[in-house]
Amino acid sequence: MNKQGLLIVLSGPSGVGKGTVCQALLGRMPGLAYSVSATTRPPRAGERHGVNYFFKTREEFESMIARDELLEWAEYVGNYYGTPRKFVEETMAGGRDVILEIDVQGALQVKRRYPDGIFVFLLPPSLEELRNRIRGRGTEPEEVIRSRLEAAVAELKQIVHYDYAVVNDRIEDAASRIEAIVTAEHCRRERVMSRVLEWIEEEVH
Amino acid sequence: MNKQGLLIVLSGPSGVGKGTVCQALLGRMPGLAYSVSATTRPPRAGERHGVNYFFKTREEFESMIARDELLEWAEYVGNYYGTPRKFVEETMAGGRDVILEIDVQGALQVKRRYPDGIFVFLLPPSLEELRNRIRGRGTEPEEVIRSRLEAAVAELKQIVHYDYAVVNDRIEDAASRIEAIVTAEHCRRERVMSRVLEWIEEEVH
After folding, report:
1. In this structure, are residues A94 and A88 in contact, taking their beta carbons and an 8 Å threshold?
2. Which of B28, B195, B196, B198 should be substituted to probe chain A, the one whose Cβ sees the most A Cβ atoms within 10 Å?
3. For labelling alongside A16, which of A9, A88, B53, B142 has CA 20 to 30 A away?
4. What is the pLDDT along chain B (205 residues), one digit of tens a residue?
């Protein structure tokens, strides 16, 4: 029905469970293509090139930046992370939907280039839950926890830039809601209308 | 999650199968409330007051019009048809979603009052299919068929006023897509955001 695939951007604060929900969604929607990120960080045990990440040298990554081959990128603790543009654009042009699972900063960069993307913000069931997840990560001093919580609240405020917000109460329920969002977006009138206009043309002539 | 229920308006050209799809949708979504129309036409065999229609005298109906108790109404072949407003508004205020299954003219009247409603246009799988359904209704002269087809094309053009368009290829598939639309609309950021703003307030104070 749609010639062009949709760009789905799944994002949300750190610790909310974006990766797990994204995997559950891909399990439900075999037609959905997952955009694999590029990084300069070394592979961890079990990680595969082209599946978990495209592993790049710093030189390779910096030349991708220079040639505008990344939809978004950032540097964290000395490593680059980014979204290769070519795969996303070619997959969409081929009529398949693509999902990016990225942090809030990356999502905002993507939105500047693709305002027509479907931006989904994943929410924790409660602020208490997010607090527990942040605390639960280790036995860091209260100061570090406090600063992470402030960062999480700052990320939560970015919800204003999104089209949808899905609560990650249970992984499968959250994935099912995102699946519904993708289905609904394919039914948006603007996306279906060209077909109807062709009928009307056909009928008139 | 949402204090106020959503208003879902299912409409489309005559003969497209609105009623059948609406029944299938109600079967899938037991929480969805069906708005029963009022009419002055006499009940047919098996039709029940309050289930299929609220059967009214002309005087009763005209007093409903005068008291602005109808969300939309029209007169066809000497009978009034309309949507009682009270049920719709009370059900939504109680947090339940309501579905109206009405024709294109009625939907446009409702949209004037409820621009925030979710307007879903049901489409035939093809113009050919709609032609066959219109022809298939009887052995009318070509002139009558022609004028009905023109009316159907005029109704198709009203698609521009809708939020979504769903193709009625198979009843259950069409109902499933409308179910996805309702789920997605509940996840729209504007509807979820107030909760997040409360969290942020809570965290700041």
Report:
1. no
2. B196
3. A88
4. 447 999 999 999 988 999 999 999 999 999 999 999 999 999 999 999 999 999 999 999 999 999 999 999 999 889 999 999 999 999 999 999 999 999 999 999 999 999 999 999 999 998 888 888 888 766 778 888 888 888 888 999 999 999 999 999 999 999 999 999 999 999 999 999 888 888 888 776 6
Smallest Cα distance from B149 to chain A, Å = 9
Contacts across the A-B interface (CB distance below 8 Å)? 110
On whether any CB of chain B is under 8 Å from the CB of A21, the answer is no
**A162: Cβ contacts below 8 Å, ≥ 6 apart:** A11, A107, A119, A120, A121, B189
> Which of B147, B183, B185, B200 to probe by mutation at the A interface, max A CB count within 10 Å?
B183
Tell whether A199 lies on the interface with B, counting CB pairs under 8 A. Answer: yes
d(CA B166, CA B150): 21
Element (H, E) at B11: strand B7-11
Given a contact cutoff of 8 angstroms between Cβ atoms, the answer to whether A147 and A205 are in contact is no
Angle between the N-to-C axes of helices A127-135 and A142-156, in degrees from 0 to 180, rounded to the nearest 10:
140
How many C-beta atoms lie closer than 10 Å to residue B189's C-beta?
18
Contact A180 B167 (CB under 8 A): no
Q: What does the alpha-carbon distance between residue A55 and residue A58 come to, in Å, rounded to a whole number?
A: 10
Cβ-nearest to A177 among B164, B176, B183: B183
Can you tell me the distance from the alpha carbon of A81 to that of A83, in angstroms, rounded to the nearest whole number?
Answer: 7
Residue A115: strand, helix, or coil: coil
| CB–CB contact B181 A184 (8 Å) | yes
DSSP A120-155: EEEE-S-HHHHHHHHHTT----HHHHHHHHHHHHHH
CA–centroid distance for A187 within its chain: 21
Record the tokens describing residue A201, joined without a space.
Answer: 């043309």
Q: Are A163 and B192 a contacting pair at CB < 8 A? A: no
Query: What one-letter code names the amino acid at B155?
Result: E
What lies within 8 Å, CB to CB, of A131 at 6+ separation is A149
